Amino acid sequence: MMMEVQEFSTDYLQALNSRSNSAQIDLRSCDFTQMKQELLMVYDKKVERWLQAMDLYDNEITDHTLRVTAFSLKLAQCLGFSRSDLAYIQYGTLLHDIGKLGIPEKIMHKPGKLTAYEYQVVKQHPLYAHEWLLSQKDYQPAKVIPLFHHERWDGGGYPYGLRGREIPIFARVVAVADVWDALTSDRPYRKAMSEQEALELISSQSGKQFDPQIVGTFLSREIYKCCQANVFHPI
Ligand SMILES: [Fe+2]
Ligand SMILES: [Fe+2]
Q: Given 96, 143, 145, 186, which is the most exposed site by the fewest CB atoms within 10 A?
């Protein structure tokens, strides 16, 4: 089946953006907007429906998803990925946490720290996503992102404990963007880290949690400045 291709900025994404409580950020006006406008990204109704479902479940996950997609695209562009790779990265990153829809709400929205058991439940989300997206044949290369974005370079991640280049490159890129956004965003059980603290943590995990080449580009090209995560809060 041919992919339906259309521009990234759809009414739905515009509506999500309009939730921003300040005019300081708009995912379509970050400094990578030109790159996005040049690309005709992979985007279709199925993705929109997944995002709508996610937004109903937890709009903070949707906002996180949009920011991680923005960071990941900019990072991938700086790493020299092709236009088609960027399109797959967009698709896979928009769906990277879709499996969280399968996690019970009382765990996802728990205000305190998770127990060991609850954490094990949350760690199922890449597998749920994989199962749900199995039948989507159109974007095969993108599906490694939902499945492998929590793998670690040193082999200590989940769900499979893959190591180094065993982890698909798309997932290694998104892993850095995903953690950056998590660290710099408020969570129910903790406040966001300062940018400096988060940079130090990302840097310290080069060659441990993350692919060192990708961390090098993230830091040297100042990818974290492409989109000020902390000002993109839902209203
Ligand atoms: Fe995740
Ligand atoms: Fe995530």
A: 186
Instruction: Say whether 222 sits in a helix, a strand or coil.
Output: coil
For ligand 1, a single-atom ion, the residues with CB < 5 A are 97
Q: Which amino acid is at 186?
A: D
Question: Which ligand is in closest contact with the Cα of 178?
Answer: 2
The rounded Å distance from CA 234 to ligand 2 centre is: 16
- This prediction has a pTM of 0.81
Tell me whether residue 6 is in a domain: no
d(CA 37, CA 156): 37
The answer to whether position 2 is within a domain reads no
In a domain, 124, yes or no: yes
CA 202 – ligand 1 centroid, Å: 17
CATH code, domain with 89: 1.10.3210.10
Q: What are phi and psi of 111, to 5 degrees?
A: -75, -25
Give residue 23's domain range: 11-231
Pick from 33-37, 96-100, 136-140, 201-205: least confident? 33-37
The pLDDT of residue 232 is: 31
Read off the pLDDT of each residue in 5-30 and give the average, rounded to a whole number. 40
